[in-house]
Amino acid sequence: MFCPRCGQKLEAAPPTVCGACGYALFVNPRPTGSLIVHESGRFLALKRAAEPQAGLWETPGGFCDGWEDPAAAAVREGREELGVEVTLGDFVGMYVGSYDYQGERLPVLDCFFLATLDGADVTLDPSESSDMAWFDLDKPPSLAFETMDAAVRDAARRLGV
After folding, report:
1. By the 8 A CB rule, do 103 and 88 touch?
2. Where does the record place the Nudix hydrolase domain (predicted)?
3. Structural domains of the chain sorted by starting position, each given as residue range(s) with its CATH number in brackets
4. What stretches of the chain adopt beta strand conformation (E)?
5. Which residues, including other chains, have CB under 8 Å from residue 75's CB and lie 6 or more apart?
6. What is the pLDDT of residues 35-82, one digit of tens each?
7. Coil, strand, or helix at residue 67?
8. What is the reported pTM?
9. DSSP secondary structure code for residue 87 in this structure
């Protein structure tokens, strides 16, 4: 690893300080905005079309853009992945997890919100999802990421399911 400010080789992996210029380098989690779209004790899951974890079920969501609030990212991701507007509900929680990207394991801070569909038909983005299904909140399938498993369990408790 090299210092992003001066290019000097770093003596240790982050967190560390560059010996040449004093720049402090950290590995901070990347925030996400995610949805648990629910209705009548069920939640909407999407089958991932792309790696990592292609073919596994997930909840809609994705990474926040720079300076984007996780709630705004969750609504944007719902629109992009489901092709409909969602009504954002209560905040479920934040969960620290990991995401494999470009040969790195990145720390993530997944922020989950309850949501409902605004009545329109869902139109999946085929680059994101190959299928969708409704599952009982109290009997979810294994999801693509551990943070999703934890958030669905917490959402079920919050909703009294």
Report:
1. no
2. 27-158
3. 28-158 (3.90.79.10)
4. 16-17, 24-25, 30-39, 42-48, 57-58, 61-63, 86-101, 104-117, 129-136
5. 33, 85, 86, 88
6. 999 999 999 999 999 999 999 999 999 999 999 999 999 999 999 999
7. coil
8. 0.92
9. E
